[in-house]
Amino acid sequence: MNKFSGLEAFVKTIDENGFSAAARKMGVATSSVTRLVDHLEHNLGTKLINRSTRRINITAAGEVFYCQAKNILRDINLAEETIRDLDTEERGTIKMSVPVALGRLCFMPIFNQFMSEYPAIKLDISFTDQHVDIVENDLDISIRIGSLPKTGNLISTKIMPQRRYVVGSKEYLKQYNSPLAPDELYSHHTLIYDYKSGQDIWRFCKSNNTEEIIEIVLDGRLRSNNSETLLMAVKAHLGLALLPDWLIKEDLKTGNLKSVLNEYTVNPHGMQPAIYLFYPENRKPMKKIRTFIDFIKHNI
């Protein structure tokens, strides 16, 4: 009996939480999956799964083996796909993670164009503002604002700069006046992006004095981990927010919003996080990944 079939049956049984669900996923009979797992356990000389009439429970040995087996199957799939790439057109699925607002506004038009030009490639996109573990979630690519935590062997490439501006609506600024110095922000309503890191600090420096950093610690009338939520609040005349250029450029152009404290640099000395694309090193040889990354770089 094929050893890899046993590994696949075992991993699918755990992932799908049952033999029947695993069988449906694999397109085989439930008895076949059960037999494959039984044979695997026999060869290993230990129980991987405890069975009952209603549910399955993975054993301690099974938990250890599951992690190794999943990595083995992942490496085999990657190796097969890399070899197929040598003689075929770009094809397959690219699984990726993208920030919500950034992905919707800046990248979806590019993704749509990419899919039109490469119909044999499918995109599986997860929109989230949370940092995700690329390796743990078996992702091919992650687009993030700023650097990701060190995890596995990742390759990063900068694909887009970013600047942030303090902005408010004309109606709000008419009522409360524009702040002329950073410390005047304390007398304003501020709308804060929630980084889950405790206190929020906006940093400024005079354009002609980059050595003196002014730190403003803000509590905020509204806190949110979604930049579009803050933008909506700014447009509702509820306060000032520190927002990225890619989100507000159209509103600044049309005059819906106005930037303030323009004689100051916000977040100086490299504190402006750029937009980066990350991917695992073992994805580098894959034609679909190389094609996608080149396409993003040329069209951003």
Q: What features would you highlight for this structure?
A:
single chain; 300 residues; alpha/beta; 9 helices; elongated
Provide a descriptive summary of the structure in words:
The chain is an alpha/beta fold and 300 residues long. The chain has nine helices and 15 strands. It has helices at residues 3-16, 19-26, 30-44, 60-85, 100-117, 170-176, 227-235, 245-254, 287-299; strands at 49-51, 56-58, 92-98, 121-127, 141-145, 154-160, 164-169, 190-193, 200-206, 209-218, 222-224, 240-244, 257-260, 264-266, 275-280. The protein has a five-stranded mixed β-sheet, covered by helices on one side. The protein has a five-stranded mixed β-sheet with strand order 11-8-12-7-13. It has a three-stranded antiparallel β-sheet with strand order 10-9-14, with no helix packed on it. α1 packs across α3 (30-44), α2 crosses α3 (30-44) and α5 crosses α9. The protein is elongated, with a radius of gyration of 25 Å. The two termini are 50 Å apart. The mean pLDDT is 86.
List the helices and strands and how they pair.
Blueprint: H1 3-16, H2 19-26, H3 30-44, E1 49-51, E2 56-58, H4 60-85, E3 92-98, H5 100-117, E4 121-127, E5 141-145, E6 154-160, E7 164-169, H6 170-176, E8 190-193, E9 200-206, E10 209-218, E11 222-224, H7 227-235, E12 240-244, H8 245-254, E13 257-260, E14 264-266, E15 275-280, H9 287-299
Helix pairs in contact: 1-2, 1-3, 1-4, 2-3, 5-9
